[in-house]
Specification:
DNA-binding, about 140 residues, 6 helices, mainly alpha, two-stranded antiparallel sheet, about 5% strand, homodimer
DNA sequence: ATCCTATAGGACAATAAAATAGTGTTTAGA
DNA sequence: TCTAAACACTATTTTATTGTCCTATAGGAT
């Protein structure tokens, strides 16, 4: 019942990028150092975030990473789900509906509700808000 | 970001016991069969729930398991935490405060809030409520 | 007393997932 | 063209999860 280290790193990395003025590029290695993330681990995370369309990367000398959108248009939920996949508090709470019990299983219901609440909260939290709190 | 199978099994087992009239004892093997839980796995789960004080066990012939309290006095949170340990959405959200960053880390804050909300919901859900929904 | 049944609990196996390291390739700016 | 940086793999290490199995032990019932 915890997000992975990867997702936490991803959130910190995105917040770091959001805090750079003028949307300048930052090297993965720099982000890694400042956020204390194992560099080669962060590389993979950056890659996934890029595939998810959350940030742009550019290769070559003076290359680096930037946010693909305005911080206020990136939600915590997007970043977490890009890394950890969709949030699912219990196995039976899935699209396919793998629950082998009743359709009106009370256990499934309560997890669905709790999950919806959590997802809603993460969805309404964007990175502009997170930045504001630091200052 | 998911409760373990163990915790899910525990919840189903407790709900099963709650549904037995007159608080009669049920054998672990019976519960296992009806809830489709691997029997020897359930034995260990039952043991943990017993240590946590959520249910009473009695050995010997015609022994079995009963709830230690009224279903309405057992919360979903208690059962889940008895098995999975305290709910912690992110590593930095812990008692010791292992977060190596600022005290006012915005990331930590948002996870704390989301976690509090989730915990509150699980705490206010008791097994009498869950039973009511089945009927 | 002595069966018989059911919990208690430890050892251990099989996956699975998470976290990290490493290595070479490709790209593009200076 | 040299170099810095992302990219794409692969491998390794560690830890958690999900079980199984086996033996001990307690306690009713006869």
């Amino acid at each position: 019942m915890q997000i992975t280290r990867q997702a936490d790193y991803a959130v910190r990395a995105v917040l770091h990028l959001a805090q750079i003025k003028n949307g300048e590029r930052a090297a993965t290695s720099t982000v890694a150092k400042e956020q204390r993330i194992p560099p080669s681990f962060l590389a993979k995370i950056i890659s996934q975030l890029s595939i998810a369309g959350l940030l742009h990367t550019s290769r070559g000398a003076r290359g680096g990473v930037t946010l693909a959108r305005d911080p206020k248009d990136i939600t915590l939920l997007e970043v977490v789900e890009a890394i950890d996949g969709p949030i699912q508090l219990n196995e039976c709470v899935a699209e396919g509906g793998v629950c082998s019990f009743d359709d009106n299983c009370p256990i499934r219901d309560v997890w669905c509700e709790a999950q919806d609440e959590l997802v809603a909260r993460l969805k309404k939290t964007d990175f502009a808000q997170l930045m504001a709190q630091t200052a």
